Amino acid sequence: MRLRVAQDVFVARQLGREVARAVGLEEQDQTRLATALSEVGRVLIALGQVADVAFVVEVNGVPTLRVAVENSSPGGDAGIGPRIAQVGRLVDTLEVDDGEAGTVVRMARRLPASAPRLTPERMDEIRAGLAAHVPSTPLDELSEQNQQLIAALDEVRAQRDDLARLNAELEETNHGVMALYHQLSEELEETNRGVVALYAELDDKSEQLREASEAKSRFLANVSHELRAPVTAVIGLTRLLLDPASERLGAEQRRQVELIGGSSSDLLNLVNDLLDLAKAEAGRIEPQWSEVDLRAVFGQLRGTLRPLATRPGVDFVVEEPRVATVRTDETLLARVLRNLLTNAIKFTAEGEVRLAVRARDGDVEFTVSDTGTGIPADQQERIFEEFYQVPGSQALMGKGTGLGLPYARRLVGILGGGLRVESEPGAGSTFTVRLPAS
Ligand code: ADP
Q: Which segments of the protein form a coiled coil according to its record (predicted)?
């Protein structure tokens, strides 16, 4: 169609809407396209121009409706672009071609996927329909436009209502979340209070436990200390009674006095062991640190223990130390090793008992190994408990108190190291003392 006078703008608007409807644009898009077209027409007419409007449907690719408004009077006012800038918002693309030959405004709007297929037959039909279109009066167009405006306003109101409802829902959800949050923080606070109370109780209990343990150690130390003097006196008296220089005893009397002497010696051993352990537990042992010459320590152990290792089938081997010195307490180290070696000798009927030392990862490791009875796997930790003796284990000599290993482990702990055992019943045991080298 051709735009010449202001009235043509109304017709162009109507036609635009009709075309948009016929090719399947949705109602709002029909209004947008019609408005865009009438606005371009209005600007051109106001500038006193004459223009032709052409509608083209592109069916290849995304189906698109294109509208070209071509001003066929060259030399007219160029630069309408800025005046119709707002129109760009109503269509997908807007191009203004201001050339020598005139101005062409091209607009395009994509058809929705729901639009009916535009076959050549359908296009013919649309063309025929548009040809038969009788333009209505500007008044009709105005009323149509008003209807559309009302519809658009209704839609805006509906959207605003939706928004208000959504906001209300959001607020409600927020309330819910806040309530949940409060509830959770209250629960957390309560749990925390419980945990704090529990810890306080735990602290109390450990304090009580520590006090009880100290009381036990004190008691043991006192009792054993008090027992030592009378037991030593009994031993002294039995020796006196058995002395050949004393009055002669009958054979039975002699046997009984010997029994008293033996039992008293056992008791003294127990009392001494208890006293040692109690002292170690009460933290009353202060190590005397010095650079200890291991050759000397090993030599002394060799000398003092060889008399015990008298069984003919058992080799007693104290190796030459492979580490010259270690910074530790000589007396405590010697006691631990003597203790372990005595045990090894006690529980080994044949094979060998061996003491060795070597450097390991910056530490020093002493091993006391034997080929004796061995210790079942489930007892290997228990033997470090006080008074525990492996059931059925028969020492080949002496009676033992079950206090030697707990004491040894304490002493090694005081020296900053660890004591562990590896053993296989019937094959033997290896006790390992690991100490820091310096
Ligand atoms: P005691 O030797 O006075 O009984 P210990 O605490 O030294 O007490 O040892 C606890 C127990 O561990 C021993 O009674 C014995 O059953 C077991 N045991 C310790 N050393 C060895 C060893 N070298 N071989 C076999 N069993 C051992």
A: 139-215
Residues forming beta bridges with residue 315, ordered by sequence position: 352
Confidence bin at 8 (pLDDT 50/70/90): confident
Q: Is the CB of 49 under 6 A from ligand 1?
A: no
Helices (H) and strands (E) in the chain, counts: 8, 12
**Angle 404-414/251-281 helices, nearest 10 degrees?**
30
Indicate the residue type of 42.
R
Calpha distance 75→315 (Å, rounded): 126
What does each C-alpha distance from 155 to 24, 164, 376, 434 come to in angstroms? 20, 14, 88, 86
Mutate to test the pocket of ligand 1, among 271, 389, 432 (most ligand atoms within 8 A of CB): 389
Cβ distance 36 to 15 under 8 Å? Answer: no
pLDDT digits (tens, 9 = 90+) for 386-406: 999 999 887 877 778 899 999
CB 17 within 8 A of CB 30: yes
How many whole angstroms separate alpha carbon 180 and alpha carbon 224? 64
Lowest mean pLDDT segment, chosen from 216-230, 232-246, 362-376? 216-230
390 in ligand 1 pocket by Cβ < 6 Å? Answer: yes
- 370 Cβ below 6 A of ligand 1: yes
Best residue among 379, 383, 412 to mutate for probing ligand 1, ranked by most atoms within 8 Å of CB: 383
When pLDDT is averaged across residues 100-120 and rounded to a whole number, the result is 87
pLDDT of residue 74: 60
Those residues with Cβ within 8 angstroms of residue 65's Cβ, 6 or more apart along the chain or in another chain: 19, 20, 23, 25, 33, 55, 56, 57, 58, 108, 109, 111
Q: What is the pLDDT of residues 40-78, one digit of tens each?
A: 998 888 888 888 999 999 888 889 999 999 887 665 555
